[in-house]
Amino acid sequence: MSVIAPPPPTIRPTTSSRATRVLGVLSIVGIVALAVFGLFITPPDAELGETIRILYMHVPTVSAAYVAFVVTAVASVAYLWKRTEFWDLLAASSAEIGVLFFALTIFNGMLWGKITWGVFWRWEPRLTTTTVLFLTYLGYLAVRRIPATVSTRATVSAVIGILAVVNIPITHKAVDWWRGLHQEKTIFGTVDPEMQGTQLFTAYLGLTVFLLLFLWLLIHRFRLAWLSERAEERVLDRAIADRRAESVEEAP
After folding, report:
1. Where are the domains of the chain?
2. Can you say how many angstroms the Cα of residue 177 is from the centroid of all Cα atoms in its chain?
3. DSSP letters along 14-43, please?
4. In the beta sheet, which residues pair with residue 45?
5. pTM of the model
6. Beta carbons within 10 angstroms of residue 88's beta carbon
7. Among candidates 38, 29, 27, which has minimal Cα distance to 195?
8. What SS3 class is residue 45?
């Protein structure tokens, strides 16, 4: 008498929830408000002029990228300690979003450079260390694509994720440590502490909005990664079950 195994539990094929919908709405409304304040309401800066409007985007994207890379490092440490799938997927998901935000940082930084320096790129200290940091995390993502066992890939990636975060303070402090052309450190060493009124409000609004956007994207990316892992397991289980069934049928 054969025993029919129960079907695997149904996986909810969505990354959305009430919490993510709220975060999504807040992020969209915040981005619209940031655009209005940054482009139309805030006055030009006394020193930077109209180019300060680019910084309202530049500072939030690099800040969100730094947070994402720190999350990757913390999750990598937790994975090496706990050896659980949760921390590995969290580290990978955060790194992907960090690379996205860092690419946006480089893009809007190039626009600022073109207006300020007359060229999109110069190999001065901040931009050089920025390139190294960006390539490091691209390498991290590339390592995660190398065929290997799940545990080996996760372990190697975790080590890289921990080592890579050391580049963040080097990149951030490059303006102080080496003389270069880049704008000097400005709140949290990024936004000019002499900012007041709508300029200061817009600067903090940008930081808040992009951190909310990072959290929203992180939740969705993590859930997508988790669903992908479950889908692969279901495919493997089904393939094994089909092979067993074929073996039973072929038996004399």
Report:
1. 18-230
2. 27
3. ----HHHHHHHHHHHHHHHHHHHIIIIISP
4. 49
5. 0.85
6. 27
7. 38
8. strand
Closest by CA position to 229, among listed 156, 148, 150: 150
Would you mind telling me the total number of residues written for the chain in this entry? 252
Does residue 51 sit in helix, strand or coil?
coil
Tokens of 68: 């994402």
- 196 Rama sector, left if φ>0, alpha if ψ -120 to 50, beta otherwise: beta
Bridge partners (DSSP) of residue 49 are 45
CA 79, CA 94: separation in Å to the nearest integer? 14
Cβ proximity of 137 and 69 under 8 Å: yes
Separation CA 63–CA 130 (nearest Å): 13
One digit per residue, the tens of pLDDT, for the chain of length 252 reads 444 444 444 555 678 899 999 999 999 999 999 999 999 999 998 888 898 999 999 999 999 999 999 999 999 999 999 999 999 999 999 999 999 999 999 999 999 888 888 889 888 888 889 999 999 999 999 999 998 888 999 999 999 999 999 999 998 887 777 765 555 555 444 445 567 889 999 999 999 999 999 999 999 999 999 998 888 766 555 655 555 555 555 555
Cα end-to-end span (Å), the chain: 16
**CATH 1.20.120 for domain 18-230:** yes
